Structures are given as structure tokens and as C-alpha cells.
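Appendix B, record 7
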Amino acid sequence: MWSHTRSLELLVLVATVAPAELVRVATAFGPAARAGTDPGRAARRAQLGAPSAYLLVTALAVAVAADGGFVPDALTGRPAGAPWLLAAVGIGAALVGAEFALGAAPAVLAGRGLPRLAVHPGAGPVGSGYAAAILLTAAAEEVLYRGLWIGLLHERLRLPAAIAVALAALAYALGHLFFGGLAVVQKILSGAVFGLLAVVSGSLLVPLVAHLAQNGAVYALAVRQQRAARPARVPEAAG
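C-alpha cells (predicted):
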């Protein structure tokens, strides 16, 4: 049995910060990425490893919380009405534009003009594996950061909801540190919105739908970006 102390709850939270970063770094700079190897292999391993790390860490954290008797109500998965779910889809899609605007601001302010809307090249090759990776990761992140993090900080540790949402958003954003500091700032924004949706709606399903909608829009953009990058086929002359 676990001791019934706040130290265990805090330990669970600290242990779940950025679970996939080591996977991404190892696949990007480890033996699979050395000169002379297939550059796409490391990206494919990261696509598999990142969601696996999130799912494993989330499952272990929830199991420890259940065994310790401190599973928060935020993880109960209460249902949400159709208006909330429709709003979540729109908000999730709009977050793609909001993140782009936040990322474009430094270039615009520096007079370099508006950059092109694009998916980070470190995301890896686009395909069914990419789609599965971002959707599974989104589901794990919502259970972990909006369910467990906000639930423990607000319900168990008695922090104000706004502070719990902010801390959970920061922890969520640090899971994107591999993509750079700007990505962290962008994900703080998205994480705060997801957290607010969870608190205001009272349902974990609402931020989950919003997150899936955001990642679905990113996937559609990545597919379009990949198609545009392919060299045009030159018609063969008739023999």
C-alpha cells in the first residue's frame, strides 16, 4: 500500500512531465540517426515511441493514483452535451490558427513578413502511422494533463482552478520541448485552452474532442504540405 501523503501525489505529477522527450532525442541523435542510415527510420521510431511513452506513463500514473486512493473526479469521464462537443471541434480547429499566429508574431514584428503555415519538419513522415501517433498521443495527454494533473492539483492539493490549469498547461507544453522554445509557448496556449474547457464543462471529453480536432487539422495540413513538396512528374515522351 502507498502512504497517504501529498508527497506521493506530487511525485506522480513530477514523474509525468514530458514522458516522450527522451524517446525523441534518442531517435533523433542516437545510433539510428547516424550518418549513412535511413533518415526516415529515426522519425518513424519517434512516431511509434512518443505515443507509446505517453500511453505507458499515463497508465502507470493512473494505476499508482488508483492504488493510492487519490484518483481525481476529473478522470471520471463525465458525458458532455452536443453543444459542448460541437464547440470543442471548432475551438480545436481554431487553435491551429492561434498557434500559427503566435509563432508568426516574431517574424512579423521583425519585418520579415508572414511565414507560411506549415507543420514542423521534425514531426516525421506523414501517413497512417503519423495519424495514429498524434491521435493516441492526444488521448494520453488529455487523460494525463487535464484529467490527472488538474484533478490532483485542484481537487487534492486544493490549488485554485486557474493555477491548476496553468501548471498543467506548462507541464503539457514541456512535452514539446524537442520542437523548440516557440513550440513550448504555442502549446502553453493550447494547454490552457484545453484546461479551461475541462474545468468549465466539467467533462474530460470536451478537451479531448478539441485536442483530436486540432490534431486532425494538423494532419490534414501535413498531408497537403507533403503533397506540395513532391517533385512534379515530367511526362515521358512517346517512343
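Remarks on this record: DSSP finds eight helices and no strands in the chain. The two ends are 79 Å apart (CA to CA).
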